[in-house]
Amino acid sequence: MKVEVAGASVFLRNRREAGSLLAERLPVSKYSNALVLAIPRGGIVIGCEIAERIGASLDIVAPRKLRDPTEPELAIGAVMHDGSLFLNQSIIMARQVSIHYIEQERKLQMQESRRRLQEYRNGKEFPRISGTDIILTDDGIATGATIIAAARWLRAERPRRLTLAVPVIPLEITNTIRQEVDDVIYLDSPAVFYGIGQFYRSFEQVTDTDVKELLQKYWESGSTQP
Question: How many CB atoms lie within 10 A of CB 127?
Fold first, then answer.
C-alpha cells in the first residue's frame, strides 16, 4: 500500500521544520529501526531531523544530476557513485543531447558523487542496506531524476522496505515516483511548481562543512546503525 500524506499548499520556515513535519508522519513503532539516507547537501538537514525524532540511524547517498548542456538547471538524468544511470529519454530526445555529452557528464558527476561520499563520510564503512527499512529523503523533488537514480540503486541492494519522505513533489511526477518506492510521504504535491525554494521561507545554501558537521554530530551522539 502506498502511504501518501498531502494537504493544503505548504510554506515552510526552513528545512528543519520540513524534517520535523515529515517525522510526525513516520511512526516510531514502525520506523525506529530504519536507516535514513539523505541526499546532500540540503537533504542532510531534513534527514538529520527525521532520524533524531524517530530514533533512526543516519547516513547519505549521493546521486548527481546530469545537466542539460544549454540549461544546467534542467536534469536530463542522474548518476550514482558507481556509475549506475537514470536517463530521462524524453528530455534527451526533445533536446537532442548527444551520447558523447551524456558520457562526459556521467563521468564528471560520478566523480563528484564519489568525492562527496568520501569527504562527507571520511571513509566510514557504509551501513547495510539489505534487509533494512530505508527512508530516502531530500529537501524536495523537482524533476525526480536524482531520487529515481537513488531509489533504483537502493532497490538493487534489496532493502526490506524503501520509503521516500520529502516535503514537496510536483503533481505531474507523483505517479512516476510512486513506482520507484514502497511508501511515499510528502507534505504537498503542487500543480504549479517553479522550484523547491518557493516552498521555504528560508532556503539557505548548505555547505560541505555543514554536511560533515551534521553527520559527525549525529554519529557521535550514540546512534546505532541497523
Answer: 15
Task: Locate 195 and state its grid cell.
Answer: 522550484
- Residue pair 133/159 in contact (Cβ under 8 Å)? The answer is yes
Retrieve residue 215's grid coordinates.
553527520
Q: Which domains does the chain have, with CATH numbers?
A: 15-61+130-220 (3.40.50.2020), 65-118 (3.30.1310)
pLDDT tens for 140-162 read 999 999 999 999 999 999 999 99
Q: Say if CB 83 and CB 106 are below 8 A apart.
A: yes
Tell me: the pLDDT tens digits for 22-51?
Answer: 999 999 888 989 999 999 999 999 999 999
> What's this model's pTM, rounded to 2 decimal places?
0.92
